[in-house]
Amino acid sequence: MNFDYKQLIKPEMNIGEKEKKIRLISGGTLFLVSVITASIFLLLLALALIATGYNGWCPAYSALGRNSTDSNT
Questions:
Q1: DSSP character for 10?
Q2: Is residue 1 part of a domain?
Q3: Which of 24, 6, 26, 2 is closest to 15 using CA atoms?
Q4: pLDDT tens digits, one per residue of 4-24
Q5: Of 15, 26, 9, whose CA–CA distance to 52 is shortest?
Q6: What angle do CA 27, 24, 47 make, to 5 degrees?
Q7: How far apart are the first and last CA of the chain?
Q8: If you count DSSP H runs as helices and E runs as strands, how many of each does the chain have, helices first?
Q9: What is the pLDDT of residues 15-72, one digit of tens each?
Q10: Is residue 36 part of a domain?
Q11: Model's pTM, two decimal places?
């Protein structure tokens, strides 16, 4: 488990298109649920999913060396 801090400056995409859509939809759904239930934890989780779905880069994937851009997952 090695994390390259240079990727924070210029991150490479490590999330595929299908996973981006899933993250954006689930993040939007969690955002609505967090507003209805007034849950700060769900709000933060929703914002993280939306941000990673929008950017196409996940710091956790980068630390674990995972890349879903080549596969259909």
A1: S
A2: no
A3: 24
A4: 666 566 667 888 899 999 999
A5: 15
A6: 40
A7: 22
A8: 4, 0
A9: 889 999 999 999 999 999 999 999 999 999 999 999 999 988 888 888 888 888 875 5
A10: yes
A11: 0.75
> Is 14 exposed, middle or buried, given 0-12, 13-18 or 19+ CB atoms closer than 10 A?
buried
Whole-number pLDDT of residue 73:
47
**Predicted pLDDT of residue 59:** 83
**Number of residues that this document lists for the chain:** 73
Pick from 14, 6, 10: nearest CA to 60: 14
Q: How many domains does the chain have?
A: 1
Question: Could you tell me the residue range of the domain that residue 59 belongs to?
Answer: 13-64
Residue 33 lies in a domain: yes
Q: Does a structural domain hold residue 71?
A: no
Report d(CA 9, CA 46) in Å as an integer: 23
